[in-house]
Amino acid sequence: MRIVVLLLGLVLSFGAASAVAPSIAEAQPVPAAAQPGGVRASVVKKYPHGDRVESKDKGMALLFWLFAAASVGGALFVVTRRNLIAAVMGMIGSFLGISAVYMMLYAHFLAVIQMLVYAGAIMVLFVFVIMILNRPEDEPVAPSGRIGQVIGGAAIVYLVGRLAMLLIHVKVPNEAIAKAAPAAYALPPLKPGMAGELVDWGGTKSVGADLFGPGLFPFEAISILLLIAVVGAIAIARHLKEDPHSTEPVGGPGGYSP
Fold first, then answer.
1. Phi/psi at 54 (nearest 5 deg)?
2. CATH class of the structural domain 61-135
């Protein structure tokens, strides 16, 4: 069961990453003429830095790395803690860091949703489930086996490689070009059918257009991946079958007899 879950997760991660990579390459900003009073000129006045952080802005860069480190550190804390409540606290810290990064990218809608839905409702649900299950902390963990370790190691190597490829291929605008034509790097080109309208970064309109446009397949792949995680959680949480020769009721003392 665990091997099947790992294989499905690896396949879906590969498909989602392969679908996202071309869209990231196409989303790189290209130079465009800045007309006085136009859409891009108004964007530059409203957001002088656009969607990038200038190298001279040390404060913003420091905050970004702090929030990014908090997000990654919280995620590592989740997978390394055996205490479930401590793991939940680490996940909340990771969500807070991600929400702060969204705020720095002017994606206020995504930041608020990250706080309300994930750090709020879903974490409360997790805590209730943990309290209901009441699993003992000293319960032995079943070994994953040699095949599971190989698949897990291959998945980690693949994800690190994909991250390295994205970091290498993402274009950083030249400082001299950015100063000469700042409006060209304020926002990526407007989407077809939205000419003359300001793309609301992180708003409901742009998020919906991306989810049901170029990001449709990665969105559905992630939803299936979450479904696999739910199935895995059910498989882990269910009680092991009792010995058929035992006279103790199923579920332990106070349980029911078949």
1. -70, 150
2. mainly alpha
